[in-house]
Amino acid sequence: MMINKKHRASSWWSLLVAVSLFIVLSTYVCEVQAAAVMSVDLGSEWMKVGVVSPGVPMEIALNRESKRKTPATLAFRDGVRTFGEDALTVGIRDPSSAYGYLIDLLGKTIDNPIVDLYRKRFPYYDIIGDPERNTVIFKKNDKEQFLVEELVAQILMKAKEFAQESTHQPITEAVLTVPGYFGQAEREALLTAAQLANIKVLQLINDYTAVALNYGVFHPSGINETAQYYIFYNMGASSTSAAVISYQLVKDKHTKESHPVVEVLGVGYDRTLGGLEIQLRLRDYLADEFNAMRKTSTDVKTSPRALAKLFKEAGRVKNVLSANMDHFAQIENVLEDQDFKLQISREKLEEICADLWPRIIKPLERALAHSGLSLNIISQVIIFGGGTRVPKVQDTIKQFIKEDLGKSLNADEAAAIGAVYKAADLATGFKVKKFVVKDAAVLPIHVAFERETGNGAEIKHVKRVLFGLMNSYPQKKVITFNKHTSDFQFHVCYGDLTHLSSEERLFVGATNISLVELENIKDILEKMSNESVEAKGIKAYFALDDSGIFRCTGVEYVYDKQKIEEDEGTLAKLGNTISKLFSKDSKEEDKKAEDVKEEVGEDEKIKEEKSEEKVNMENEDKHNKTTAEKNLDEKENNKKNETVKIVTIKEPLQHKVTFQFTPPLTGKSYELSLEKLNAINKAETMRSRLESSFNALESHIIDIQQKLEEEEYASCLTSEEKQKILSECSAISDWLYDDSDKTTHDMYETKLNDLKMLTNVFMARHWEHEERPEAVKALDNMIDGAQQFLENAKNLTKDANPERDVFTQIEVDTLSRIIDETVTWKNGETDAQNKLQRHEKVRLTVKDITDHMASLDREVKYMVNKIKIWKPKPKPTTKSDKKTNKKNEEVETEETGSGFGNETQSDDHLSNQQSPDEDIKVNTTEQSTTTPRTEL
């Protein structure tokens, strides 16, 4: 019985170990699979990086200066690349070498008005057009030229570096924020920049959508089955936007679970209104005031360096005036060693920017108009972005909405946190609360094609809207072409842009998105002419994905074909079911196509043309249908077992898609850009290693020279050793500064290793002398503790205490011997070491002391563990106890007997049961004696 219990306990223990091991391994596997991801809120002026890693909540990654945001600027000077604050410093000395405010130049051709505005704002850049793509190139000299994608890619590389340093993990995936007004060209250009930076973009998310997601995630209590409406107003450095957002709990049709949904209903924006424009107005005002003082004969606006200084000071003053009524602008050596100081009031700043304030309300008005909602049902207007800190901006919005503004969001980090939440949702290894996001198309998209009307009439130009203004996405659409019998093409373009100002329409640039050319249509139709088919038309499939990227995903020729089958057996029934499923899919796609057409809002004329088109198609196929029906009737009369089934067949069509917006960086140009960035990164890595090795060698030389001047170090080496080390330090120092241009990091590292081998001798002696007293003190404490333990252990032997014989006499003697040997060794070595000078070879080392401590500790621990597991032996049962037990049993038998039979029989019965009774009593005794002692 006891053996079985032990066996079961052992089995349970093995099971627990196995389960624990499985849990550990599972946790390890999950951690390996769940890699960290990041988000990058890449603005015109600042960059914020959000990160999330396994077991760590969402947070903002810090840069090298331990700041939460970094200037989105990089600079190249004297072959050295710098980022952030360092790049801004370079930009003051050499403005044309520092590149910032790049985001709005992505995907722009050289003739776009945005590029002209950039030249006007920053006149010290030499901007030229790419001979292949006609995009923007910053030209510093003939050797240094950078595409905008290359510059943005390098900023994204730095963001990735910050994220990896924060999470201590490699990161390859990210969600990037973009302005909502970005079109196809801008989004494709940003994806190319991310690809150059070796970042896999999980999604591009509009900045206001990321902020709305952030707000919904951290304020879930207000979301219910009734839609709640908010406006998120953002004024950044270079643009301003307003988005009408709804929050609502919606039940999923398939899972029947309710999930919160955030949906964009209306958007308004002004891509040239922001904090940058206010700063530029203030810069120009300071320049005019400096010129008015006539301190120099040179116009300050003609000096790039002076203009950069004024721009920086204007930004500082603008920020100070957001919290103060007046402030002094102060710049040393603006131009020709002339200083500048001027008092500026907030009132003066508002006067300078008087024409900007009315534009603040326009995005709000457009967003409300596009959403179809009135201001009185908006729960709150929530502001974010650095530009909203300007008091005049807040006052203007308050006057319009006649309510207080919502300021519950972090104006700088809200978009980055919302985007990193989306990144965790899209990445593998993270489980987040489902939050459905529906964005809206700011630029409508339609399809344009030509159609022959027949009878020699003119060719009709037809347009079909795919994604109208504020249509939600991600979404897929289908368009059916019913009357084309030969190869044709159609254009995908931006739709009706009359809701935009004339200036904004110019900023959008080219309205063509892509050209789709269909081939081999005539061959397919001829192939099908001899078969009994019913044409369903040519279907083109389109998608607007989560990133707002438009694609033509495929083109197919769809038709219904009659199929004759014999014997309605099991296989035939299965085929019939499958054909019904195909037919159902076809009907659903036809319904989607009809939905698209109805959604377009076509006029009556187009509807008539569509009906005429269907009639013509019916007339063309009438003869074929009649023939097929006759043949079918004949076959049915001849074979009663044959059945006719309709199968929908989709035949892929060859087609060619050509981008017609600003072409993305691809092919050989992309490879050249990638090689350029790799070369820059490699050179920076080599330079960083060279600087590190140089600094390490220089620091070690200075450190050794200083230590040799201190007595506690100098006493640890002889005069000859000291002179030799000083001479070597002096020689390396001369070599270090004389030949620094010809050296490599390997040479620095070799010199450092050689010098360390020379200096480590006296450094080791010094360390021994400093650490020895503490080590000896620890040894003394251990000896005292061991001796106290030994005195107690002597009382736990068989001779001293028979009832508690924990230790044997050999174990006690062994411990006593080790203690005596350790004391003798310590006293002798200490006396010998005290007779030596500090520069002589150390005799009593810290390692020797720790070795003896380990030996003594090992013996003491052995005896301590033995006393922990020791248990008293059970007392043996004596003969008198057995007789007493036997008598008790006899009495009990007589009392409980049946009374039948004679006394002899009772005795015989008792003697037969004697042995097992004794066994049971022994077991019972063991349990009764062991249990209370264990509890005690």
From TrEMBL:
Residues 1-34 form the signal peptide. The keyword Transferase does not apply. One of its GO terms (cellular component) is endoplasmic reticulum lumen. PROSITE patterns: HSP70_3. CDD domains: ASKHA_NBD_HSP70_HYOU1. Residues 589-639, 872-936 are annotated as: Disordered. One of its GO terms (biological process) is endoplasmic reticulum unfolded protein response. It holds the Pfam family HSP70. Residues 878-890 have a biased composition (Basic and acidic residues). PANTHER family: HSC70CB, ISOFORM G-RELATED, HYPOXIA UP-REGULATED PROTEIN 1. Belongs to the heat shock protein 70 family. This is Hypoxia up-regulated protein 1.
